[in-house]
Amino acid sequence: MSEGMIEETHKSAAGGRASSAPLLGDDREPTLFEFSVPGRTAYQLRTNEIPAIDITELLPVEHLRSEPVELADVSERDLVAHFTRLSHRQFAVDLGAYPLGSCTMKYNPKICDEVAGLPGLADVHPGTPAALVQGWLALMLETEHVLCEVTGMAAATLQPAAGAAGELTGLLLMGAYHEARGEKRTRVIIPDSAHGTNPASVTLGGFEVTTLPTDERGLVDLEALKAALDGDVAGIMLTNPNTLGLFEEDIKEIAEAVHEVGGLLYYDGANLNAILGVIRPGDMGFDIVHMNLHKTFATPHGGGGPGAGPVAVSERLVPFLPGPKPVQHDDGTFGWMSPEHSIGRVHAWHGNTLVLARALTYLKIHGGDGLRRVAERAVLNANWLRVRLAEHYPAAYDKTCMHEVVVSAGAMKRKTGVKGLDVAKRLLEEGFHSPTVYFPLIVEEALMFEPTETESLQTLEALADALDRIALEAESDPDALHAAPRTTPVRRVDEARAARMLIPTQDARDEALGLST
Amino acid sequence: MSEGMIEETHKSAAGGRASSAPLLGDDREPTLFEFSVPGRTAYQLRTNEIPAIDITELLPVEHLRSEPVELADVSERDLVAHFTRLSHRQFAVDLGAYPLGSCTMKYNPKICDEVAGLPGLADVHPGTPAALVQGWLALMLETEHVLCEVTGMAAATLQPAAGAAGELTGLLLMGAYHEARGEKRTRVIIPDSAHGTNPASVTLGGFEVTTLPTDERGLVDLEALKAALDGDVAGIMLTNPNTLGLFEEDIKEIAEAVHEVGGLLYYDGANLNAILGVIRPGDMGFDIVHMNLHKTFATPHGGGGPGAGPVAVSERLVPFLPGPKPVQHDDGTFGWMSPEHSIGRVHAWHGNTLVLARALTYLKIHGGDGLRRVAERAVLNANWLRVRLAEHYPAAYDKTCMHEVVVSAGAMKRKTGVKGLDVAKRLLEEGFHSPTVYFPLIVEEALMFEPTETESLQTLEALADALDRIALEAESDPDALHAAPRTTPVRRVDEARAARMLIPTQDARDEALGLST
Amino acid sequence: MPDYMPHTDEEIASMVAFLGLDSIEQLFDAIPKALQVAGGLSLPQGMPEPDVMASMKTFAKMNKAGADQLICFAGAGAYDHEIPTVVRTLGGRGEFVTAYTPYQPEVAQGVLQAIFEFQTMVSRISGLPVANASLYDGSAAVTEAVNLAVAASKNETVYLSSGVHPHWRSVVKTFARGTGHNIVEVPLNNGVSDFDAVKDAGPPGVIVVGHPTYLGTLEDLADVRSRCDEAGALMVVAADPVATGVLRSAGSWGADVVVGEGQAFGTSLGFGGPYLGLFACTMDQVRRLPGRLVGETVDEEGRRAYVTTLRAREQDIRREKATSNVCTNQTLMAVVAAIQLGWLGTQGLREIAERSVRSTRYLLEGVTKIDGVEPLLPGVATVRDVAITTPLKADLVLERLAEEGFLGGLALSALTDEGDGSVEPNLREHAILMSATEKRTKDEIDQFVTALTKAVVK
Amino acid sequence: MPDYMPHTDEEIASMVAFLGLDSIEQLFDAIPKALQVAGGLSLPQGMPEPDVMASMKTFAKMNKAGADQLICFAGAGAYDHEIPTVVRTLGGRGEFVTAYTPYQPEVAQGVLQAIFEFQTMVSRISGLPVANASLYDGSAAVTEAVNLAVAASKNETVYLSSGVHPHWRSVVKTFARGTGHNIVEVPLNNGVSDFDAVKDAGPPGVIVVGHPTYLGTLEDLADVRSRCDEAGALMVVAADPVATGVLRSAGSWGADVVVGEGQAFGTSLGFGGPYLGLFACTMDQVRRLPGRLVGETVDEEGRRAYVTTLRAREQDIRREKATSNVCTNQTLMAVVAAIQLGWLGTQGLREIAERSVRSTRYLLEGVTKIDGVEPLLPGVATVRDVAITTPLKADLVLERLAEEGFLGGLALSALTDEGDGSVEPNLREHAILMSATEKRTKDEIDQFVTALTKAVVK
Ligand SMILES: Cc1ncc(COP(=O)(O)O)c(C=O)c1O
Ligand SMILES: Cc1ncc(COP(=O)(O)O)c(C=O)c1O
């Protein structure tokens, strides 16, 4: 690699300088490896008094490594400073509003962190016999019951570790259902506004994707749907409200039409927040629902995970659910069982159980009444923002939205050359996270705002004011917008270079710099 | 007030904008009150089902307030964002090196935080009968024993809540001792390099201060001391190494001379870190020692407190110690007792007990061997820095120092006009906390560096490099130094104005702005 | 050799060489060899973290007094209030915990602004315009208040009401050994300071009362104010800040200084420390204020900024003439209190105050239905704490209650010295001081009453 | 009505008015009334935080399986390693916990850099040049590896060794329902994959082995490599990352893909999740890598910066043609692993690996001295886990051990399905899989041996 753009830094430890703390300017933070000094240690292990027999006497020598795996060798003090400083280079819900559409970045109650660390929950081995984990089984079963009540379904699996895992699980259930009826159906229909995980899951589920256009209302084109339906159709995947934030008003007709041809309806629960306690997927006619507990039920997203994607199903799909599942026996005790025609495991153990504990905590605090309030206020906030932004950022479909609103910067771009991405980047300077950009794909210069119910009117006002300022700036000084963000720890990054000249590790970096040994 | 410099901001809530997050520039963070919206709440209390009788039926009306105390009314979400953002405007050991002389800002092991939160320690009421708090009493007694061994004393009180409280306690002990012997001694001798708490404590202890000059070695002027000694002298307060970081080599002679006239020796333990396991105050001849657990034994300083300032004493002062004190009975159980001639309580309960638990954790991890290593490496680091800095920042007294080194920017100031304070402020831009400036008072343009043993050689190198750069800048561009710091959340603040136009509360601010109702 | 020091052997060797030395020991050459510790400290070797954690947990287990074991009906200046996860999480952030005193305001705006907010809250609660950044605890705060008041009135006679917490009174008296103040203890009569009992003591320079008193009773603050006016004395009130959620502030009654214990705001019981001394005063006295004070100002660019101010009062500048010797205070607890009071808000503070009043009253009504259990002060309204007498000695009753899982309160015989002016000598051995916060439920109190019913049977 | 929503009644009214509506309900007019939930969800009313905390603690107490109750000798892919306070504290910082996927790299350098460091560590442990930002768990990682390998080899026949964790094999088979891959299970013979047993299955497109196997035994990876070369297949190794502290890396044996479970690096046992799927591969396969990948680049000013890269593989761009459907992964656990591995360092990783080998060996030697207790595979060296057989049924033995305070391991009858090719059918009911990490002390193991001695008596 000759592209001489890799920044040269010392390979040796950079010292205790708070070099990245934005508190002190926007300087670089070395990697942990650059702090490393061979021989320096941080770890402290329990005194165990087991004879320190040489490992070569215990294992066949041909399997043993001659050199230890080289890691970063730092003091606890430097470890703390490094990761504290890195945390200062990271935006988060805890720092400010995060109106990232489709992601439901609401406040994550701190009490849930404590629950997820409780002794008796956090320190339990997943292979412990059922008799000793009655609490965990009860917790899981209660979670399943609450999720079924919220979605209007008969039973659920808690195993899927995230939404996409839930989708694939749901599609395998769909396949198993048809197969059990002796049918081999090949196609699954999804709207063109669908999230990328939907088509990807369909493929992995063994089906072909049939894409459905969105009509001028921003909804499923009913005629196109009907035309696409036949005996090959295994089912349809929808999220409702859809990814435009609009409720599929024809859901009853859609459900009937799909069921008519023997297909099933899959509900992508990413947008469940909008309808909590208002309407239930089961009541709309859906057969399979996955939920993103890390969206709707406020389990924190952890910078990209973990999540939890339980899948709830209607009666007829219950026998196919993954197993083992928690069950309550007649004597009141809890145990495990596998449904009769279970598709098998979809997780190494029982799912992201500590995420479930967080979600159940959230669900109990809110209760039935609180969940309804969540939906109401999420929708109220989104609509307030929609109307308030209309002057400069018209909604892609101008009508009452649900929990999120997709606006278009298309007109702005044509007039000023300022793109949706520029707006998103400039908003970072204003102290807000950007909205989702360029999704759904069908809206030109899409900006998708999901304020969520935990943001205040004052926050929405401040957000709208900032966006208005940006709109005026687009007219007066478009270059400033192209140059944004300027106050962040780094400015726009060269994504093309990252792909062209792949440096995925410290070693690749050192090699590119000619530093490798 | 007509001085129109108060920055006008909205009184209304400023919204969820991460306005202070330096991540996103150096903008302002509103006060919590400015986020307040009447009627908004965050608190959640346990359901208790006690009849909600109107308070006017329970208490005499003339004592009741008509309006509630007006506090800030915010959501939990905004509370988290506000204080998380405030935390990003705060330097700390966890972010980088903090070489603040006399303060021993070493790494605070995270395990101690966990110990201080342990159920069974953190949730115990201080008025619980002794039979039920055997663990706490045992913990305290072990702490006392360890501290006595470290200092070479006979017994200790754990009650004083910080160093200054320890000093005053020690001085009262001194007074009680002399009084019990039928003597009324009036003077306490302290060197001119002493910390401000020493003279202040002496006054509050009922004595007059006699100030002793420092000689050309940077040490107590032995002749002056001898001249000052007579039958009025209750004692002398020293820290050794002294606040210049130098060991009082004549300590044996000093002790003998003071004891000769019937005086006592008080050891200010602020600099104990330098001599752990090397020499003990008791062995030097001291009668009373206070320790700053928040310095030497790494309990975190909390932005200004809490601390803990146990006082250990030699045999003859034991009967005067504050009470009640933990004691082990002959049957092995623990209880409380008050020394025969106790001066009484110096704390509402038993001292800053959770701070003691942290310190004991630190002490046990280090053990006797580790404490010695602490002293060795603290002194090694300070001397390395002293020699490394010598070119631009000569030590005030050029010889081997102990755990800290006082250098002078006096020559720099005369040559370039750049003061010690400028250097300190400019260092902030480099990612380091400043050293202590202008203390001890006897050194011109003093800069007092105490790197502590938890900083690495690489950190010292980076610190020295930064200081060298600053020294060169002092020659080439002194104005840049006067203008420093420029990258911090705020720049130099107007301290004179703060005192002249006192605004100690939001209400004072609102009044000054004419916003008050 | 577990520790937190980064030095490798090679680094030590290179550093020693850089200094031109042969060994680390040479660094200590200035220290007389004869005095040096020979053979190391007589302490065990260091142990790794997990071993030490295990031994600290052993201490915790030796206590039989955690929230899991005893339901808390004790108060007396240390209260079992709700502390939510959110407050513990924010207050535990490393930036707050591991900072020093804000000597460099440019990189300490976080703590400084939090303290500014804390000062505002304390000022509003006390009803006085200025509050400091904290003192060690309630006892330190009242001691400092006495010092301030004597300096202001130039009269060393201190009327110290026996309604002030007994331990705080002890502390005031301990420190009066140094200052030489003349402490005159004013007994209580039916829960109210009986100033007539000390009319021969000479005019006071300061009158200190508790409001509520440590027994939960309410003083006649208007009367105290007029007595102060008469004597040219300053009025110091030790006020419970939670009780102020329902009571008129001491400031509104004319107090010159209001002090208190702030533990109730987010700090755990912690066996008594670290706690949080609250201190507020009138503007007249601000230049005598002990401890740190944060003020708003501007930076070079005109931005709002905070800084510690009126520093000329402080020991590091004024030395032997300082108003106080305090340096390290309880800043972290003050930051935590600001967070907790932010969480409570206007309604929440009122609610915990009202609930505490109601719970304590419900408790009193329940226990005084028991044969032989009487209020210590029948018919006297109380806030926060209330004292009862039982047919048996208080410590025996408390022992029995502990067996049933209750911390039943504090025996007045343990809390007070013999001859304390706040309680009738013949009742002292039989009296228990109790409190129920907003955390206590009806069920818990009902069960407690049942347990007490059994416990008082001879 | 406890909740986290800031809206006051007045604000709601003003917002509704701003929208020109009469009520919030009108916002839902697009939803057919007939379908709407009538009368609210059939769920209890909301409860305040402290009440809910109490009920969650009740679940915790119903378990008799926490570290305070059972000393853990169970492994099988979930290990009881030291997790120090420092790692929990740093990993628990709100900025890491409450961030989303780093879509805006300018404000996500914290997570991105931590992941870059994590990728480096995983790469070094696996011996392969590129690692992704995590997958759900070990089972997901091996499933994705199979998909990658089939796509690369264009041969759907998957040799799946029975030495791979039984649950992971189940997951692979579940997902093969969708992909249609032909999964051929390869039995173990004396702890090593017996490829001869499946020689009629047709040439593989991929061979997947465990190293160590879930029984702790070591595969002949050189042989696996040459079999792959012969068939043009990819070699996938499910490798335990702690064992790699002493073992040669799978990459050094020529693996194309190395996967594993990263829970051991700082993530609590947590009843099985969230865990951490590790995935590393050769550069040849990087464009088929599932999930996110962080790469170094520069910003507009030439400063080093990190960003997710090669995004064209991902579902949001490639949709139905994506290499994988994964979106949300286990980033927080990856950040935690980077912190934990930073804490361990070079020496620490080796030490926990060596200690785990020694502890497990000491355990095996202890228990096999008991009459009737035998190694499942006598004379076969094991790492991490080891299986024994007992005279009684395994679940009875485990029940008895639990009464003595030990989680004695996992019964192979519970872990495997009947007819599993990894264990002799007649031994399956009597076999226990055990493990001892660096946390187990000599005392604990000695006591365990005593307990087991009693437990196996009929
Ligand atoms: C509409 C939609 N569907 C599915 C998903 C996938 O969920 P997960 O990321 O949990 O796999 C997402 C997440 O971004 C989503 O927004
Ligand atoms: C030399 C010296 N003595 C005494 C003290 C006072 O200790 P504290 O702040 O704990 O009251 C200090 C603290 O700064 C000090 O440095």
UniProtKB/TrEMBL annotation, chains A, B:
Gene Ontology CC annotations of this record: cytosol; glycine cleavage complex
Residue ranges of domain Glycine cleavage system P-protein N-terminal in the record: 130-323
The entry's keywords: Oxidoreductase, Pyridoxal phosphate
Pfam families xrefs: GcvP2_C, GDC-P
Domain Glycine dehydrogenase C-terminal per the UniProt entry, residue ranges: 376-475
InterPro entries: GcvPB (IPR023012), GDC-P_C (IPR049316), GDC-P_N (IPR049315), GDC_P (IPR020581), PyrdxlP-dep_Trfase (IPR015424), PyrdxlP-dep_Trfase_major (IPR015421), PyrdxlP-dep_Trfase_small (IPR015422)
Annotated catalysed reactions: N(6)-[(R)-lipoyl]-L-lysyl-[glycine-cleavage complex H protein] + glycine + H(+) = N(6)-[(R)-S(8)-aminomethyldihydrolipoyl]-L-lysyl-[glycine-cleavage complex H protein] + CO2
Gene3D superfamilies listed in its UniProt record: 6.20.440.10, Aspartate Aminotransferase, domain 1, Type I PLP-dependent aspartate aminotransferase-like (Major domain)
An example Gene Ontology molecular-function term: glycine dehydrogenase (decarboxylating) activity
Stretches the record annotates as Disordered: 1-26
HAMAP family linked to this entry: GcvPB
Name this protein carries in UniProt: glycine dehydrogenase (aminomethyl-transferring)
Native species: freshwater metagenome
Lineage, uppermost ranks: unclassified sequences, metagenomes, ecological metagenomes
From TrEMBL, chains C, D:
Pfam hit, one: GDC-P
Coiled-coil boundaries: none
Gene3D superfamilies: Aspartate Aminotransferase, domain 1 (3.90.1150.10), Type I PLP-dependent aspartate aminotransferase-like (Major domain) (3.40.640.10)
BP GO annotations: nucleoside metabolic process
UniProt keyword list: Oxidoreductase
Molecular function GO labels: glycine dehydrogenase (decarboxylating) activity
Name this protein carries in UniProt: Unannotated protein
Organism: freshwater metagenome
